[in-house]
Structures are given as structure tokens and as C-alpha cells.
Design brief:
The chain has 85 residues and is of the alpha+beta class. It has 4 helices and 3 strands. It is globular. The chain starts with a helix and ends in an 8-residue tail after the last helix.
């Protein structure tokens, strides 16, 4: 795989999204209804209250449920497309 192909695979289709709960900005791609790729553009514990308030290392958190809800809302409203249709 070339560097360009690898870059496209990893970041192609990523769109900016702002969490409706806290305003944290991430890049997101909905590959399917079940699969969401999120790329944080800042350190989560610095910008997301859920990560900042984690009991223990924030790296152990899977994701933020408020961010997941915000992304789901955007999909329902049609402002974030799902790649597989």
C-alpha cells in the first residue's frame, strides 16, 4: 500500500463534527450505522468533560456517550452521511 493509499484509508471521508453537549471538535466518518471512526483533534481530557472527569486514566474510556449521541443525531438529521448508504 502506498503512503497516499494509506492516508486515504485512514482519513478519507473524515468530516468535522462539534459535540452538541460540550463543543469538542473531532473528525468523524460513519462507515456504517454500526461503525464510527473518530479522530480527536485535541487531547480528549483537555476538551471533553466526560474524559476529564474519568476515574482513572482517560485512555481506558472507549468513547464519550454524549459525543456518540451527538453523532447519532447528526446522522438522523442528515448532516452526517453514512458511507454504506
Amino acid at each position: 500500500m502506498t503512503t497516499a493509499e494509506q492516508t486515504e484509508f485512514l482519513s478519507g471521508g473524515m468530516r468535522p463534527h462539534e459535540c452538541r453537549s460540550c463543543g469538542t471538535r473531532v473528525l468523524v466518518k460513519k462507515n456504517s450505522i454500526q461503525h464510527t471512526s473518530i479522530q480527536w483533534t485535541s487531547r480528549p481530557a483537555d476538551t471533553c468533560p466526560v474524559f476529564a472527569g474519568a476515574d482513572g486514566p482517560s485512555a481506558l474510556l472507549d468513547s464519550c456517550p454524549k459525543l456518540a449521541g451527538s453523532i447519532a443525531d447528526a446522522v438522523r438529521e442528515g448532516t452526517l452521511a453514512v458511507a454504506d448508504g
